[in-house]
Specification:
By secondary structure, this protein is an alpha/beta fold. The chain contains 11 helices and 15 strands. It binds threonylcarbamoyladenylate (TXA) and magnesium ion. The site of magnesium ion has 3 residues, from loops.
């Protein structure tokens, strides 16, 4: 059974031993292990029930340490890192041999990021190795944004949850790779396309499809609640039966409903991203038969939210 606390020394002790620890980041909680240890990395895949073809993100606390793990950290990659790290940005860079193939599922690039969370940055600073950490949820389920979410699903399987409070951003990092030198978004996330383009100019956004082998995390059915989950029009939502829970963006439905969540009454997509996974978890626990929702405005983090909604609905 996991202990939950904010003891960095305890977290460090488990990680040095090769055990796994859940860590807070600004995006979502991660299930962390020594990225340089095959044994720890294997244990991450097992604990999450994650297929071995879905590679992991490596977390570190300083851009200087990065050159131990990757090549070619220069040009637009370096500009993006300077602008947004620590923050919700993951870069795909050519890996050095010290990173086990297991981490990258055999790919020659490794995903790396510096997360923006004081506890985790301090932990990383004290460790002599980087941390491989996927989101701390069973494979395919909604990512955790509170320590209690991790506890509910992985509490039996790991010794320690480092509790850093609620995740500020609430949605996973934006993954950027470079195709013939052109910055390319592999996964929409907590850093908006606009913010990225302000630094490096026009970027490509890869279409999401389970047939895209380059980023297996783009598997269509992902980030999903257990209950049947559907994207609906406003009119359909207004007419939803009482055994259906609904989540709307800004404006509550006219009809009074017990089971309704409003992502952001102010109409702010950042607030909506922050609430998204917590609300989905809460709705998933209600005695209802289905969950219905609507798209949010396709601007800023709205693009990443709509991506998660589509994938939860397996569209
Ligand atoms: O915000 C985040 O990114 C969180 C926190 C914990 O840092 N982590 C996270 O990890 O969302 P995970 O494992 O749930 O998603 C990582 C995604 C996967 O979809 C994986 O396919 C993609 O990153 N990825 C990792 N390494 C890759 C690589 N070498 N090439 C392409 N995609 C990669
Ligand atoms: Mg994940």
């Amino acid at each position: 059974m996991a202990t939950t606390g904010n003891d960095i020394a305890a977290a460090k002790q488990f990680l040095v031993k090769g055990d796994l620890v859940a860590i807070p980041t600004e995006t979502v909680y991660g299930l962390a292990g020594n990225a340089l240890s095959e044994k720890s990395v294997l244990s991450i895949f097992e604990t999450k029930n994650r297929p071995s073809f879905d590679p992991l993100i490596v977390h570190t606390d300083s851009a200087e340490k990065l050159s131990d793990f990757v090549f070619d950290f220069e040009g637009p990659a370096k500009e993006l890192a300077a602008a947004f790290w620590p923050g919700p940005l993951t870069l795909l860079l050519p890996k050095r041999d010290v990173i086990p193939d297991l981490v990258t599922s055999g790919l020659d690039h490794v995903a790396v990021r510096i997360p923006d969370h004081a506890l985790t940055l301090e932990l990383l600073c004290q460790l002599e190795f980087p941390l491989a950490a996927p989101s701390a949820n069973p494979f395919g389920y909604i990512s955790p944004t509170k320590a209690s979410h991790v506890e509910a699903q992985l509490g039996e399987k790991i010794p320690y949850i480092l509790d850093g409070g609620e995740c500020k951003v609430g949605i996973e990092s934006t993954i950027v790779g470079f195709v013939d030198g052109v910055p390319t978004i592999y996964r929409l996330g907590g850093l908006s396309v606009e913010d990225i383009e302000n630094v490096v100019g026009k970027v490509n956004v890869l279409p999401h499809s389970s047939s895209n082998p380059q980023a297996p995390g783009m598997l269509k059915s992902h980030y999903a609640p257990r209950k049947p989950f559907f994207l609906k029009s406003r009119e359909e939502l207004e007419n939803a039966g009482d055994d259906i829970a609904v989540m709307v963006f800004q404006k509550p439905l006219n009809k009074f409903r017990h089971h309704q969540k409003v992502l952001s009454a102010a109409g702010d997509v950042k607030e909506a991203a922050h609430n998204l996974f917590t609300f989905l978890r809460e709705l998933d626990l209600l005695p209802v038969s289905e969950i219905w929702t609507e798209y949010v405005p396709a601007k800023g983090l709205g693009l990443a939210i709509n991506d998660r909604l589509r994938r939860a609905a397996a569209l």
